[in-house]
Design brief:
The protein is an alpha+beta fold and 176 residues long. It has 5 helices and 11 strands; from the N terminus they run H-E-E-H-E-H-E-E-E-E-H-E-H-E-E-E. It has 2 domains: 2-31, no CATH class; 45-175, 2,3-Dihydroxybiphenyl 1,2-Dioxygenase, domain 1. Methylmalonyl-CoA epimerase involved in propionyl-CoA metabolism.
Length: 176
């Protein structure tokens, strides 16, 4: 059964491949397709960069990941433009970003007022062209929370997308 399924997926009608009346085509022939009428995207979604976790106690949360779980953690970094302190926890294939309020107008303080113990705040996904992504998403009625990208914790342009437009998830896009 597996052989015939595989043959059907990677063969053209002809001779060969057992009794199916088909023959194997090379890998390049399998990958050739009719030209698409859809233009290529101007921007591309990439890897998951990090999952951000708001915490009321940054030292305690940092100690949990460093001392209990044995993860490598960064130093605390203040990001006044975003109203947060951050600590990054390095994982094998992504990072966690621990967030703590900085200043009275911190969006993280608003989150913690509603979620006393903290919790997942947002996800960050990499894009290759943040301005093209913003333009395209805005045209598709996805609201960006700022008109221009800001410089994020990694020194790269970022923008947040409204959670009501993204299945209830606050999404950060970061240009790589």
């Amino acid at each position: 059964m597996l052989r015939s399924t595989t043959c059907a997926a990677r063969l053209a009608v002809s001779r060969g491949c057992g009794s199916t009346g088909r023959r194997w085509l090379g890998q390049s022939a399998v990958l050739k397709q009719a030209p698409s009428k859809v233009p290529p995207a101007l921007w591309k979604l990439g890897n998951l960069n990090h999952v951000a976790i708001a915490t009321p106690d940054l030292e305690k949360s940092t100690a949990l990941y460093r001392d209990v779980f044995g993860a490598e953690v960064s130093a605390v970094e203040a990001l006044p433009d975003h109203g947060v302190y951050t600590v990054f926890v390095k994982l094998g294939n992504t990072k966690l970003e621990l967030l703590h309020p900085l200043g009275n107008n911190s969006p993280i303080q608003n989150f913690l007022d509603k979620n006393k113990n903290g919790g997942m705040h947002h996800i960050c996904i990499e894009v290759n062209d943040i301005r093209a992504a913003m333009s395209d998403l805005t045209a598709q009625n996805i609201r960006c929370l700022s008109k221009e990208p800001k410089i994020g914790a990694h020194g790269k342009p970022v923008v947040f997308l409204h959670p009501k437009d993204c299945a209830g998830v606050l999404v950060e896009l970061e240009q790589v």
